[in-house]
Each structure stands twice: as C-alpha cells, then as structure tokens.
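Hey, weird one. I pasted the DUF308 domain-containing protein sequence into the form twice and got a warning about non-standard characters only the second time. First submission, copied straight from the form history:
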Amino acid sequence: MTFPERPAAQPPAEDDEPFGRSSAPPGSPGDPLDRLALLGASWTWVLASALATLVFGVLLLVWPDKSLHVVAVLIGLYLLAAGVFQFVAAFAGHPQAGERWSRLLVAVVYVVAGVLCLRGPRLTITVLALIIGMVWLISGMLGVYAAVADKQLAHRGLAFGMAALGVVAGIVVLCLPIESAVALTRLLGLWLVLLGLAETAAAFALRSALRR
C-alpha cells in the first residue's frame, strides 16, 4: 500500500537527505532520486497503485474456480506490480533513512514472493497460503512501524489501520487451514478490493491536499 509523504512547505536542506544525490542541478532530468521522489509523491501514482490492486482483486473474485497454476500466476503478477509501486513510494518525500529502508524492505518482500509464485508451477494450496500469509504479516508489521515512526506520513491513521489489518490477515491465513484454491482466491480477492478502495480514497485525498 503506497502512502506518500505530506506535501512539504519547503524542501529540506541537501545535507539532510539520507540518500546522497547526484551532482546534477536540482530538478534536472539527470537526478534519478528527484525523479523517483516526484513520481512517488504524485497522487496519480497512488491512484495507479489503487487501480492495479482493484483489477487483480476483481479478477480473483470473478475467477475463483480457476486452476491453482492460474491463481499463482495472478498472485505473482500482483506481487511484482505491488513491489514496483512500493519501491517508488519509498522515495516519495524525505523520510528518515530507517523509514525509507523499511519501505524498501516491503518492496523486496513483494518482489521475492511474486517470483516464488511465478516460478512454482507445482505450488500446493498450503505453500501458496504460506507465501501470502507471510507477505501480509511482514508488510503489515513494517507498515505499522512506518506509520508510527513517520509523523509526516500522509493519511497516517488510515495507513496504520490498513497495516494492522494486514497483520491480522496474515495471522489468520497462517493459522487457519485453507483446503481449496477457491477459498484462498476469494479471501485474497476480497482483501485486494478493500485495499484498492482505501488506496483510491487516499489518492483523491492527496490530490485535494496538493491543490490546497
């Protein structure tokens, strides 16, 4: 889930940036960190993440009876896409180094889990549920940490609530036996739809904040 920083009144000094910048002038096309920060802080980027989440959630709800291999591919593609959005969102604004690394770690968790889903054509329901449960649990815990530590996080309360729900969802998936692909896809699809709706609301709230 991508929640950028609140729009800053003034840009921080160059010495305060935890990640070193290039020698290119500020705002120039040659500064990749500036480009990532602008992209990650854009409300359209948050909206794109929300739409991607909604699309995969709807697909899983519409096709709950597909084969396990198809379900694993859909989940893997979603996790890879979510990893990209999380990576770019980590550079939005000017968070502290520890908070930025926690967001980058979430991106790595998503990408690794996505690759495991795509490279495992013989995945069982148990293994797939284990991957999803671990992703929800780890990303939820890191999301809770980011929401508590970063007082400049946009929609901090919403981010904390969704991260806490992710922790609960991860524990539920890991503790309760899921015996069919249909049950797993419906659970995941419902979660992605709710997550996508929350991200959509956050995107439009961010647009209003930027306009003000």
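That's the output from the first submission. The warning seems to come from a hidden character in my clipboard, not from the data itself. Residues 181-211 form the longest helix (31 residues).
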